[in-house]
Design a protein that fits this description.
Elements lengths: L1 H20 L1 H37 L5 E4 L33 H9 L4 E16 L2 E10 L1 H4 L5 H4 E4 L7 E5 H7 L6 E5 L17 E10 L4 H6 E5 H7 L8 E6 L5 H12 L2 E4 H4 L1 H39 L1 H9 L4 H37 L10 H18 L1 H8 L3 H5 L3
Parallel strand pairs: 3-8, 5-7
Antiparallel strand pairs: 1-9, 1-10, 2-3, 2-6, 2-9, 4-7, 5-8, 6-7
């Protein structure tokens, strides 16, 4: 082992002396590698930051998986014997209905390690009125303690306090703007269902309620901010005629890109219709895939360009140092030693270039985060730096392989006579 490191040290010194002799050439190729590494790190970090921003913007206002009751289907009488039955079937209208045995299902889901949060909710259409203003909304009844683990409403609250009860609701900023209300204002909620109860007075039925605005949120999605009204679970059940029932169970998972597979598993386990964010946001996923593909193509072409540059420089170096190589061979240097000398040169170019390129990439990322559009922040991780440095060094060694084999194959007598 000691002898091996001793030979390696000698070969490394020879390789570095060759690089010193051609300082300008060595400096230019090192800068070329540095630029390639800086581009790779910056583009990769930029795409990662953009994708993270898109995912956070999308999943920050929705669950990873939603469980609802299976669609109701038409009951069709079987055909009479020896007859052919032709049927033109229209899809049956879906009514608002509760999930059967949702308490037991929720308890079961709470025990699954694949899921990070479970929140049973009541969701249905309704109207909100203030004076002559009338807006259609989505009434969402929930347990805030559970729902906060799905969507952190406290982070999106822009005024008031995070509280829902029999008399307090949360509404979106766009809805508040359209109705001209603020925290403390009163609204009338109506599910639009007529239960025939006219004994309550003040033109209110069990499907209507006058509530106070406890807080106003802004999810960042205009449609949601204009339509969502969060209220107490029991109050929503009463308004939507679903006493003791829920219509949807929201779930989150650790790895969002495994949501589709986990949704299939949960659907089989609960016999409910499971839909993941991947299915409901197919265009987003296609966009993320296209971004990743374009990023990988850029990285690949830059790496190939760097590799060809290294290979060409080391090929020229092998020709320029033919006499030196011949002398080394005549002094007893083996083909393996000559091979190692050139491979070490490739590794040095890759390592030094990646170190300089990493520093340049930090400057580029800092400049973007400081002077850029401030739409999102580019993260840069130490893992990305280490992986890129390793790949750059490996690329340098690989690019040096062909000129190294050529140099090692030189005949010492012919090489010494080379002018």
């Amino acid at each position: 082992m000691t002898a091996f490191f001793g030979r390696f040290w000698i070969d490394a010194n020879i390789a570095i002396s060759f690089l010193r002799e051609g300082r300008i050439q060595s400096l230019m190729i090192t800068l070329g590698v540095a630029i390639g590494v800086a581009v790779i790190i910056f583009i990769t970090a930029l795409i990662q930051g953009l994708q993270t921003n898109l995912i956070d913007s999308t999943l920050g206002s929705q669950a990873h998986i939603r469980l609802v009751s299976p669609d109701e289907v038409n009951l069709i009488a079987p055909p009479v014997d020896d007859t052919l039955q032709l049927i033109q079937e229209d899809k049956r209208p879906q009514r608002l209905r509760s999930i059967n045995n949702w308490q037991q299902i929720t308890d079961t889901l709470d025990q699954l390690p694949l899921l990070t949060a479970v929140s049973p909710n009541v969701s249905g259409p309704g109207f909100v009125r203030r004076g002559e203003a009338l807006e259609s909304v989505i009434l969402v009844g929930t347990d805030l303690e559970r729902y906060q683990k799905i969507i952190p409403l406290s982070e999106y609250l822009i005024s008031g306090e995070l509280r829902v009860s029999a008399d307090n609701v949360l509404i979106g900023s766009e809805l508040a703007k359209n109705l001209g209300v603020e925290v403390g204002s009163k609204l009338r909620l109506d599910s639009g269902q007529d239960d025939g109860d006219s004994s309550r007075g003040n033109n209110l039925s069990s499907n209507s309620a006058v509530v106070n605005i406890a807080g106003i949120f802004e999810l960042g999605v205009r449609e949601l901010d204009a339509r969502y009204v969060y209220l107490d679970l029991k109050q929503a059940q009463s308004l939507l005629n679903l006493s003791g029932g829920i219509t949807v169970i929201d779930l989150t998972v650790e790895d969002i890109f495994e949501a589709e597979e986990i949704a299939a598993q949960v659907g089989r386990l609960t016999s409910l219709q499971a839909e993941s964010w991947i299915k409901t946001n197919a265009q987003l996923l296609s966009g993320l895939t296209a971004q990743s593909l374009s990023s990988n193509m850029i990285v690949g072409f830059v790496a190939i360009s760097v590799a060809f540059g290294l290979a060409s420089v080391l090929s020229v170096s092998a020709v320029q140092r033919t006499r030196e190589i011949g002398i080394l061979r005549a002094m007893g240097a083996t083909r393996q030693q000559i091979l190692r000398i050139f491979l070490i040169q490739g590794a040095v170019f890759g390592l030094l270039g990646s170190i300089v390129g990493s520093g340049v990439s930090y400057v580029l990322v800092w400049s973007f985060n400081t002077f850029g559009p401030n739409i999102f922040t580019i993260p840069i991780s130490i893992n990305l730096i280490l992986v890129t440095m390793s790949l750059a060094t490996l690329t340098g060694i690989t690019a040096a392989a062909i000129p190294a084999r050529r140099a090692a194959a030189l005949d010492p007598v012919v090489a010494i006579r080379y002018v």
